[in-house]
């Protein structure tokens, strides 16, 4: 099973998140369903970014795919995952 590695932008908010959603939806329509999201550069995520992650996660699950998150290096970003309890839903690798 090949996982497609995607880099999350530094500021994963409204504009960047919408652009990222389009990119991933396009990849899903082409048959991709296994993704690894690299958060090494991400220093900010807002509710739009979180919503994009949840919608991608749901689509992947519907298609028997997978979504993994790794390299969440910024403590503020990790704190958002914990506060929203998405760290319990999404697979976040340390």
From TrEMBL:
Domain STAS positions: 17-94
InterPro entries assigned to the protein according to its UniProt record, in alphabetical order: Anti-sigma_ant (IPR003658), STAS_dom (IPR002645), STAS_dom_sf (IPR036513)
UniProt GO MF annotations: anti-sigma factor antagonist activity
Database matches in Pfam families: STAS
PROSITE patterns, per database record: STAS
CDD domains given in the database record: STAS_anti-anti-sigma_factors (cd07043)
Xref: NCBIfam families: ant_ant_sig (TIGR00377)
Family from the record: Belongs to the anti-sigma-factor antagonist family.
Name assigned to this protein: Anti-sigma factor antagonist
Organism: Oceanirhabdus seepicola
């Amino acid at each position: 099973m090949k996982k497609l590695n995607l880099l999350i932008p530094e500021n994963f908010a409204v504009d960047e998140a919408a652009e990222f959603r389009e990119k991933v939806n396009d990849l899903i329509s082409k048959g991709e369903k296994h993704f690894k999201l690299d958060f090494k550069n991400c220093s900010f995520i807002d509710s739009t970014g979180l919503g994009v992650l949840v919608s991608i996660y749901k689509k992947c699950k519907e298609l028997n795919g997978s979504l993994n998150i790794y390299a969440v290096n910024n403590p503020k970003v990790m704190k958002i995952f914990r506060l929203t309890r998405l760290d319990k839903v999404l697979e976040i690798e340390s």
